[in-house]
Write a structure and sequence with these properties.
about 25% helix; 10 helices; Elongation Factor Tu (Ef-tu), domain 3; 8-stranded parallel β-barrel; globular; 6-stranded antiparallel beta sheet; alpha/beta
Amino acid sequence: MKRPEILAPAGDFICLQAALDAGADAVYFGLGTFNMRARSGVNFKTEDLPEISRRCRKRGVKAYLALNAIMFEDEAGEVERTIAAAKPYVDAFIVSDWGVVSLCRKHGAAFHISTQMSTSNSAAVAFLASQGASRVVLARECTLDEVRRIAAKTGVEIECFVHGAQCVAESGRCFMSQEVFGKSACRGECVQPCRRRFKVQAVDMYTDKDGNPVHEAKAAFEVEPHTVLSAKDLCSLPFVDKLMAAGIASFKIEGRARNANYVKTCVQAYRRAVDAVLADEFTPALAADLVEDVKRVFHREFSCGLYFGRPGANQFADSEDSLATTVKRHAGVVIDYFLKAGIAQVKIQDHEIRPGDRLQIHGPTTGVAELTLGELHRDDERPDVARRGTWVTFQAPRCRVGDKVFYVEDVQAGPQN
C-alpha cells in the first residue's frame, strides 16, 4: 500500500509553519486573487513566494498554488503574470478554468485539476490527463467505490478531501452568495448564506378589500433546525485505511480560512493515522482517539461525506456553532525570549494565566508551540497569577518577540452525530 501525501492548508505563515512542523507532505495556499478563498486575511502575497518555497524545500515539502476561481475575459493577463511569477517557487498550480489550464500549458507549468471542475468519472480524468493535468481532485460527490475504480482505471494521481468543511453544493458550484449578497462563491468570495438561519413565510395572492395580503404576515415560521442548508464537516479518520486501499494519492485537508491550531491538530491526526496503517497498527480505538483530538479544534458535526453513498440526506448539521472541545483565549504577547535559558518574557494583555495552565504560542516562524505552564517569575517574585497589565517570565519552547500567547480552555461541546 502506497503512502498518500498529506496536503495541508496554509492561510498565513503561522499556518504554514504549523503544517510543516506537524508532518505535512505538501501545502496549498493562495495569493489573494483567483482562488476559492479570496479574502486577504487567508492569503499570501507574491513577495512571500521565495520564503514559502525556502521553508517547504528545506523540509522536502511540496507547495501548490491555488488558482481555481473562474477567470473572466479581461483577466488573462493578470493570471498569466501570476503563473510566471510563481512557477519557480511552486510544484504545481491548482486550477479549474480551461483558460487557466491553457496558460499553465503555455508556460510549461505543472497543474492539478481542482474539485471545482466537478470531475466524477474515469473518462473525464483520462481526458484531463491527456491535456497535461498531473493530478485530479475528484468531485466531492464521488463515493469511495467510484474513487477506487477511477484511480485503478486511469492510473492518474487522484486527490480527495478527507477532512474539513463541506459545501451544500459539494464541489462548490453554488450561486446563493452571488444571488443574495453579490459575492460569488466561484470567485472565492462566498459569505456562506447556507450557514444562516431561515424562516418560511407565506406569499399568497389573497388580499382583503384594501388590497393587503390576508395570510402573508401571519404565516411565517422559523425552520427547525435552523441549519437546513449547512453541511456537516467531513472527518475520514475512522476509515483512513479504506481511503488508502482505494489508491488515493493525496489526502487534502480543507481549511485555508482556519487557524494554525486547527492546521497543526488535523495534520498530526492524519499523519498518525496514515503511519499506523502502513505499520499495520491502525485500530478502531486509535481512530476514536484521533477523532477526539480533532474535536478539540473548530468543527461542526462530523460525517463521512458522500464516500458511502448519495444523496446524503443525513449530511446537514443540527448545530449553528463550532463544537470544538477547547477554545483559545488571548493572553498576551512575547516581548523577549532568552534562548540559552529557554525562557519567554510575556506581557499579559487579556486573559490571566496561572501555573498549570495550558498555553499555546503562535508566530509566523514559531508556528504553534504548546506547553503546560510551570512557575511564573517577575524579577525576584514568584507570582501565583499573571494578571492583565503585568509581565512574567516562564520556561517555554523556542518562540519569538511578537508571538501571541493563548490560554487554552476546555469547553462543553454539544452532541456529535
